Fold each of these.
Amino acid sequence: MTRLARLLWLLLLIPFTALAQIDPVKRQLFQFGYNAALQGHAPLSGYAFYYRNDPGFLHTNLTLRLAIAPVYLDSELGISHALAEYTHLGIGLAGGGFADTYSEIRQGKFGSKESFAGHGCETSLSLYHLINPHQRIPLNLVLRGIVHHSLYSREDDTDPTFELPHDRTTASVRTGLRWGGQEPILFPSLAMELSAWYRGDFRTDGDDYGYDNDRRVESASHLFWGQALLAYTLPELKHNFRVSLTAGASVDADRFSAYRLGALLPLAAEFPLSLPGYYFEELSAERFVLGGMSYLLPLDRKQRWHLNTQVTTAYVDYLDGLEQRNRWNTGVAGGILYRSREDFLKILFVYAYGVDAIRDEGRGAHSVGILLQFDLERAQDVLNPAYPNRWRGWRGFFGL
């Protein structure tokens, strides 16, 4: 595969990962995000996927969730009341090309010669238990078992003398408590979450790879993390703000299980560790604390246009071999958000500055980006009736 083709596929690769409970709301969303670094040579940072959540799929107690990218599929069939009234099951299947691709970034430099492609598939079984069924804010217990198989291959730029890790199977267990939650959308008007999590990865074998086997794949790694967040819209002013704090620790983490921070891609993962202005997954951490705040200020009477500002800072205890002198890393961003009537379309154009990012010129990195969300469910109500011929082409294109 040519380097250009590889970059295109990677741009379209990253889907939003599974929620930690069955989503009860019918959704059809198209999500797109892209960050372009203005300095240095960076791995591509982006995602594009179609997200569908279908409660009542085939039967009233079944929910089908799909996240579809051109070379990746993430799916789960949720079975409500499978074990008890408030205990549900989820059966998941995921996989595709480039799902396990690894990009080596050290001291702010992308090491394409030490990076490689990875393809993977996995199956999972999840248990979701609602602990407080009569309370307004739900408290869910989550238990998930995962079996994941990874296959690695060289890229065009991979050094021929760089030894790849062995293909392997990983068995994982994840459990946690989540009080509240947030929708899988851009800029929710209201969200609150307190959660704590554990994940253990157990590989078929540990092995050495790299230059003269200078790096290690651990046979077992353990991750512990928690998150607190609040998003709220002021009723009168319609200003929206979001504050969040995420912290994580690990035991025997390696390059494949370490926490990776960087870029501004809020739907690239269930727990995105965003740092505006940095490369995607630029920092690899054994332990970290990440805090951030964003604010949306309406600019017009109809509240179509908004000014967006964000600031995020992190204290990082780096993974061995990927250390940096400065443990504090801060990023700031500002942009213009357009929101259509009924919020069926949201587009954010953003500029970001990585205050402490290491580049050839010293510290400081610039990037620009775009985030887009198209809500097909809301669009059905807006692209409608009075003059149907005007909208027929759009309705056909989006399958409405």
Amino acid sequence: MLRPPALAPLFEARRLMDSVGWAAVLPQMLASLGALFAVAGVGKVVADLTGRYIPLDHAFVAVATYTVGMAVFTMVMGNAFAAFPVMTAGIGLPIIVARFGGNPEIMAAIGMLSGFCGTLMTPMAANFNIVPVALLELPDQYAVIKAQIPTALPLLLANTLLMYFLVFRF
């Protein structure tokens, strides 16, 4: 008697998708854009620019460049799935894995977590940071981002340290 009807989840899912709208497909679109950038050679350009301005002769510098680069590129692109192929092709695989012998699985996992730190700090991640503001009708359009930055920055530092201590040891 108190149970919802069997079709209630379908109706609620449709209502939610109608509320979210276009932002529901944004992660898939940005992942496709990241793959397109990787095929176009943007990773090589990132590697060349990074090599010019940052001395990647030490493993910690390479790891920090990769994790912070993932966060920053995610902030620009709006999604870590878009930044991942570019940063991994440009810095992760050639520097961390090939030059320093890092474990690619650990690098990829912690690299994605670093990218998600960037997702927490940008309005470009509309599906995470702008849509909730609209749905909750918050007066400050950046309220969600402001609340997440104190978590994102220490988490990015922790990811950098974790990668440095784990990627070369396992």
Amino acid sequence: MRDNPVKHRLSDGGSAFGTMVFEFFTPGMAQIAAAAGAEFLLYDMEHSGAGIDTIKAQMATCRGLNIVPMVRVPTTQYHFIARCLDAGAMGIMVPMVESVAQAKDIVSFTRYPPHGVRGAGFGMAHDDYTPGAPAEKIAAANRRTLVIAQIETPRGAEAVDEIAAVDGIDVLWLGHFDMTNFMGIPAQFTHPDFLAAVDAIVAAAQRHGKAAGFMPTDESWARDYVAKGFRILAYGLDSLLLQQSLSQGLSVLREASAARPPAVSPA
């Protein structure tokens, strides 16, 4: 089975960088991202409307590329997590994690017995349809699956140290918009309450040997949050990156057009 270099890099104290996919579930997306230098793609099912058939097709396009496919599922439910793993996801992000019990359930859904409750299915997408001893595949799958708990509510921030201590949770991911929304300070990303939650997430991750994760949407956020101690970062999301780049290019065209001397009409 393929390995997960992102998980190894994070467990060794390193960093990993990629992007999120919300809109462009196209055959070339994985190669485009890999060619740009992305180490992982995090495909969204929570807000995008993508279903398991779309996710399975995207996992297939990552096969053979030097990129790690991961999926954010809509909620803490076994059938979302296990099906995405069977489709070939090497990592799972779960939103709205708020308790130790929830974190333990998430980990159990990603692990085969005796360490969890994931159902057995081999010679399928997740093991690249290859033959092999089930016991070896079970061990390899348990080792490679990266588990990301998204901390995005005050309750989650209050319990973040206990969540970080759960064996099998690899990443604490800051959900910045929802965190401010649930705090009653929508999009106030310099508010002291929000910044205290950010610091708590990073501190808990460092204390328990886990990585803190974040999705910066511009260069300033990227620099600031790397400096804060975040080690796995998804730079923007696909639709926003296209929109920003297109907007910049169109502005250049309009400025150039406005500066051009007016065309002379033929006599």
Amino acid sequence: MPIKTLRVELLSSTPDALSLIYAAFRQCYHAGFVADMWPKLMNGEIEKEKQADFVAKVLESGHDSPVEHVNFSFAVEGISRACSHQLVRHRIASYSQQSQRYVDASNMDYVLPPAIARIPEARARFEAFMTEVGSAYRDLKEILDAHGRKEKSKEDARFVLPQAAETKIVVTMNCRALLHFFHLRCCQRAQWEIRDMAEAMLEHCRRELPAIFATAGAKCESLGYCPENDRFACGRYPTRSQITL
């Protein structure tokens, strides 16, 4: 039952993403048909810098719906079930998660919280419990097998698995959903695990599409102040109430 660490890989993103967003924005304000403009975008007649500048200016105005035309798909491993439960609360997304009904967890990997890892006695108790869970799972699976459950024994034995159990998931979000996700989950108030995942995803997005994601991140970074109330602010930025004093 080894400890797993986070790994985030970009599987795919929409081809010609910047040009697609530029065309979608232009259609909102252009009398013509952007399909006639598309060949010019593809052959370089409209430079990437010009496209990026136009997109940035429109985004600054608050008009961001056209970025929904571009998607990013990630493969993620080394996150806990606790983290994946937080992740799937983001509704404008598609998820394909490793199933505990079908995947044998007899040698379950798990995620060890850093706060527990730093305290020897806490780590020892945590790891002892993980060993106990693994043993219980294997015992239950064996008993259920002997009573005729066979392949279905995994779907019943999984009820003893903890939230620390490692999971793997494929996530697809459009750019607008990703910007919202980063606003919330790159925040210092987000739990460490989903924040680490969000920051890893953001690194991929910045490399692939800097025109959209170069300044993405926690909401305070784009606002210049913390939108939380004084009680929950982390202190990196002044709160709204502090600004208005």
